Amino acid sequence: MCSENDVARVCSMLLPLVGIADDNTGGDRRGEAFAAWRRFVDGLAEERPTVLVFEDLHWADDGLLDFVDSLVDWATAVPLLVVATARPELLARRPHWGGGKTNAATLSLAPLSETETAELVHSVLERAVLPADVQSAVLARAGGNPLYAEEFARMVAERGDLSDGGELHLPDSLQGLIAARLDLLPRAEKDVLQDAAVVGKVFWPDALLSVGQDASALDDALRALERKEFIRRDRRSSVEGELQYAFRHVLVRDVAYAQIPRASRAERHEQVAEWIEGRVRGEDAAELLVHHYVSALEYSRASGRDVTDLGARARSVLRDAGRRAVALNAFVNAARFFEASIELTPEDDPDWARLLLDHAQAAMYVDISSDRLLLRARDVLLAGDVHDAARAEMVLGEYRWLRGDHAGSSEHFRIAEGFAERMTDESAKLQVLANLGRFAMLADENERAVELGRPALALAEKLGRDDMRAHVLNNIGVARASQGDEAGLDDLEASREIARRVGGPEYLRSCGNLASCLASRGQLQRADELQREALQVARDIGYEEPTRWLSTEVAIGGMLAGDWKDARRIVDELIPEYETSPFWIEPQTRVCRARMLVAEGAVDAAVVDAERAVELVRGSPFFQSLSDPLAFRARLHAELGEREGAARLLDELLAAWTEKESGNIGFWVLDGWFTAWSLGEESRFQSAIEGVRVVVAWLEAAMFLIERDFGAAATTLEGMGAVAPAADVRLWAGQWLVDQGRPADAAVHLDRAAAFFRTVGAGGYLRRCESLLSAAS
Residues 114-134: what's their mean pLDDT? Predict the structure, then answer.
């Protein structure tokens, strides 16, 4: 049962959907609104099977598409069917809606057959027969397009009966047919339709009055156009207190708009924009205002008008639309709006530098080279407001971190921390502290991450910022878990749940970081589920950075679990992209591929990837970046008998691990053990293990190896789902047992290793198994 307060809260969140309250889905309230909408729909479906229909979803903004995404993904326990109609271009924005999306199916409608086209025409005209030549011409031109057939039938109805052999000239295109219908309209009705076309697919009578329509004749014209099926009246309006109409089809609107002389479009767009500013809710108006002011600006320029004032207004609404898109986590649109605003803003304008900062912060999720504009404004920002200066340094540092320049990023973070001490705006200070904590956590400065996180968490709670609570709990959770404090996993679960309600990038980080901590503890299956879930969300929303990162994590999970075909496909697609767009997880991507390459027998190619991985992380202060490349390249040196190279990299690995006492544990620990074993340095490796506060399955497997209990090590790994590392262990076991003169025991391990390598096509290691089996016999 819901309390009265719960009911009131849900109702308040539903009001924007029916256009009778201010939209409150921006910023940190978006997740709360989505949760309320889902709760309402879930309640309907719990009471009885429910069908929810979205028509023309290709017109929806990203916020609504995100809600539909979340509804389909999470409302799985109730009898709910969501039906959406849309043009194919929707798939350009949400490509995974075209197939492969969980709990979803796509149905593409084929063109009408000639019989179906004729039936549609006859139905609209309410007659069974048309003259043969007319019907033949319609079928030839319609091409199965139902709108052409409908428009033809309506034109016939408007021009009169053809049964007496009257002549009818049919345009070849649908647009031509619509234009012919428009030409039949009385002048007053055509003027109303053209003015409505300026407003948009949806329009309001009061907006038409703003562009000069006669109030006394407007109602009659609208009724006539509705009767002739050019427009329809909507049951609900998105503008409170206003009737709302819509074009029955966007092509009618497009043709009507195209008939307006270009010279008069500018003035009409400007008039409509002014009406919108006075009547439409501020947040809802953002993209509408962009359309009208930018259109007015373009047509004014083309006609030679002075655009000084219009340009200033256009750049202002573009900036506002960018901020609105950020609040909705629609970063592709946000970057586009900010870029357009920047193009209209001179560098000596007081807002120029801050606008570049807004753009860089939004574009980070879709293009990690987008700091090039911010770099131009850095000196201006550093000389100005301390809050903007701190933000700029954090943003520039994050861009460099994302491209793998970890040493360079640290300098920006250091400068930002100095600014933080002087910040008085609590919201801005919260963002800086939270991100400083995040990068401290990534650098394995776990105690410092927690120290930064505690005051940031208190500030987030004070300000009611759930998005930042999720962010800070994410940082604290990883830091605590890395120190062996299992309560850190609770922090991560809490972060994920909050981020799930709020939406946006933090949900991806929460899933990914929780998955990494679980993978370190050997919970590979749940880690893989979390990573795949987050990857799907990242792809749907179009976030570049999380998509690359999570794709690599999924590939690594597939490699560990023995799904090498999918893992190879992913890394082979990612690595060529890094040639033109450097990215922080490239070293791990290359190590993932190199592991499979060396097992397949492509040793030279594996060495190339391994060397490149080490080169990329050289000098990084982030141990989680160093561990895989250093450990795997050291192992490869050891496998090839290159003791000097193996020893050098083992020294680097152990020095960094001992300094950081990192709990970021994975396959690399086994690589490190193999190298130490090959060099007779196991005691040093064991000392490093004993210095780590966290006890996880990977370390248990490594200790079993030190004790020469290969069977227990392999069984531990297999129990985790790490079947590929287990096969490596059994191969090493076979080699050692053959050397120990225990061929029967060696054969047990080698047979199981060979079976795995055969399954994944790892010919190089399979041949080694077979050679050892031959020696054992």
Answer: 69
